[in-house]
Amino acid sequence: EMTDAGSASLKISCENALTGKSTTLSAVGFLGCARALCQQVPSSELWGATIAESAFVESWVETAASTLVPVIQGGKSDPVFKAAVEEFAERLEAHLSSKKEKYLVGANPTAADVCCSVWLLLAGKKSSAGALPAQTSDWCSAIAHHPLVKSIVESAKESAPAPSTSTGSSSGEFADNAIVQKLNEFGIPHTVYAHKLSKSADELVSNVPIPDGDSHTKNIFFKDKKNGLFLLVV
Hints:
The protein is α+β, with helices and mostly antiparallel strands. It is 46% helix and 12% strand. α4 (79-97) crosses α6. It is elongated, with a radius of gyration of 22 Å.
């Protein structure tokens, strides 16, 4: 969804069919939302197949979000916006022309291709920018018709929830939590677990099942002779 400031926010809620426990992942900003969605299905490699590729994907998405999204949200045609879109298209053209592969990062389409192509087409229309360079135009068409991208779009349509008629808060029960607010502010993907009061680490492990590979933490609070306070998380 869009925030009042024109940014994007994302909330994914999942329920464990075996335990009945719910988990929630939140993200803010176009970059944070794109990253969070891609990381839900690592096998898709939409955020890159390697650490190096992931860094390039993030760079392209971040640049496109800061350059093209303001044009899309601008509300009117503007010479400055038009120039920004055309300059971005030329940058894409130079990059695509210098690679053997036909995608921005690696040999397969990634979130960089999806975000950049969609935002470029929308920004170009909004700003009345000139025609796209030849290779960039072919690239946009290839991305739109790629089987992986089409399957993602179809899956999104099928899984989209029906419009809610609830009058409750859309921010979730943890919206006022200071830690959650900071994680959202910095676009850090995270999972929130709702559980009953657990007075010991053993109770926490029992009350809050987590995915294999993850681990619970234990907080130990120290106070020294000089009244210094220390929180140790293990």
